[in-house]
Amino acid sequence: MQYGLELMKAYLKFLGERFAILVATVFISVTVVFFVPRLVPGDPVTAIFMRLVSVGGSRGAPLLVAEYRRIFGLDQSLWDQYVSFLRELLRGNLGYSIASFPSHVTDLLRISLPWTLGLLTVTTIISWVLGSILGAVVGWRGRKSRVLQMLVPVALVVYTIPYYILALILVFLFAFYWRIFPLSGAFSVGVVREFSLSFAMDILRHAALPGLSIVLVSLGWWFLSMRSLITTLKGEDYIQYAEAMGLKERRILWGYAFRNALLPQATGLAISFGHIVSGALVTEVIFAYPGLGWLIFNAIKGLDFPVIQGGILLIIFSVALANFVIDIAYPLIDPRIRYERAGR
Amino acid sequence: MTVIAAEQPEPRRYRSLLLENRKFLTGMIIVLTLIVLSAVGTYWLETGGRTSGSLPARQPPGEGMLLGTDALGRSIASQMSEAMPNSLQIGLIAASLGTLIGALVGFASGYFGKAVDALLRVLIDVFLSVPSLLFLILIASVLRGVGVQTMALIIGLFAWAWPARQVRAQVLSLKERAFVQIARLSGMSGLEIIFRELMPHMLPWLGANFVNAFIAAVLAESGLSILGLGPQQEMTLGMMIYWSLSYGAILQNLWWWWVTPVFTLIALFLALYLIHIGLEEVSNPRLRRQEA
């Protein structure tokens, strides 16, 4: 019991540290996002508008500039601007889109976020769970089976390919050459957006290729990492003890080795989450999938800086939050802490 | 100095270990082949093929046009001979900068400990958890029209967190070893210990981290370029994909246009990853034993 209590304390301390990281991440990235555009000489907003006007865009430009100046206090000192930037951010005000004025940036983000969130959550869960299970099986009995061992070099090759590069190959094969899946978008043009089976199928068909490119690549990674974890754990004393005790092999693998490998595997997820998100954003561009990556891509094309800025902030917040949630979930996976709670 | 030999292989032994490592060698051969191919290309191919309209457009690979031409009548082969060195240059500059900053931060954090470590650890964790591509998008879209070198520098500035974390962990474990304690007792200064005692043992580790950062940099370049933030006036592997996409190469069945940069990138990533694994196996004896 005393041992468990110590663990609980250590966990709380760890949680506090992770929360500090969460706060620091948000604060530092907001600060970077605020200051970087201002390192470039000249008033950032005007500079962008001038360029926009020169290419013949946005009729409301002067109006917009005035509105921006008022809200974000652009004629005041840098510090005052920073304070108003933070104040507006807390209110959830990310300003107006330039390309589709007078839309609020937050409205555009709200439309795009669900697509990215859906795609990322589903693909990450599928690849993490599937990769971990496969990796455990291969790591446990890999040497005995030639077929299973073949998976390793395949995973190694696939894992090194970026999602969006694999996406190009998949688009060519499955959408252009064989025409099994649609080329782009998240649903067919003109389809009725309602809660129906046909619309759901339509969405799934469109998500298949972007999803597949993310799943295949990350599956390779989770597979390799779980396999090496299990291979290492196989030599541990408690596994050999369990074997000597005559426990069923299945029980030793899933009840002991796998359980213990889950913790580093979850840490791996937390560490590589940012990487996964970056890759997924670019993948959306290949498929014109209407998530945050596609939104940012179009904002870059349309010189829509507020949207780029808002998209970046939203993604950073989400990633930081997701990492924190994975950290909180540790006790659910770590048997030592869980058993203690159940015992009390 | 017998103490060191007992704990870890002598730094000199690393080279022969590397030359015995199959993964490292395979990776090196692929990378060198790619470099030689692009160098030969630069030497042999007429640079005239790079400007649009200089050749008939949309030609598949065949006589006279080694890898075909794009929709603007530029030769794919001569684009490649420009893109390869540029992409590799981005990898080289960014990885050097990232590893250097990372090593300094990691050494400082691991060696000095206490408040320095606490502060640097938070910083490392923050920059690890934020996808650096986002900061790169921000900076590149503010600067507008970055060149190859500028892009490399920006990518390098955000590539230090992972090496820093790795180096810090290594320093923490090395610092307690006997030979470092002896060096400290014999009156060496902190910096002297870092460079004369710790560095030689960290080299293969730093090498592995360098290759890792190299992969990340080439990845970042292709991602940024596909998003439309690449060097518009120059050719890189990412820009080749960007142009092929923006001219609808897939839909028009101009497969040679996108297949060339895509498979070059895949070969490059695979090769670099093999080198990375090789270096890691050499620097970490435990991994070596596992594979044997």
Folded structure, characterized:
The complex is a heterodimer of chains A (344) and B (292). Chain A is mainly α and 344 residues long. Chain A is built from 14 helices and no strands. Chain A is globular, with a radius of gyration of 25 Å. Residues 339-344 of chain A have low confidence and may be disordered. Chain B is elongated. Residues 1-7 of chain B have low confidence and may be disordered. The longest helix of chain B has 37 residues, at 76-112. With 292 residues, chain B is mostly helical. Chain B has 13 helices and no strands. In chain B, helix 7 crosses helix 10 and helix 10 runs parallel beside helix 11 (237-246).
Shape of chain B: elongated
Largest interface by residue count? A-B, 54 and 40 residues
Main sheet of chain B, how many strands, which sense, barrel? none
What is the residue-mean pLDDT of chain A, rounded to a whole number? 85
Distance between the termini of chain B: 28 Å
Number of strands of chain B: 0
Strand content of chain A: under 5%
Structural class of chain B: mainly alpha
How many strands, what sense, and barrel or not for the largest sheet of chain A? Answer: none
Radius of gyration of chain B: 22 Å
Range of helix content of chain B:
over 70%
In terms of per-residue confidence, which ranges of chain B show pLDDT below 50 for 5 or more consecutive residues? 1-7
Give unreliable regions of chain A as ranges.
339-344
Strand content of chain B: under 5%
Shape of chain A: globular
How large is the count of helical segments of chain A? 14
Cα(first) to Cα(last) distance of chain A is 9 Å
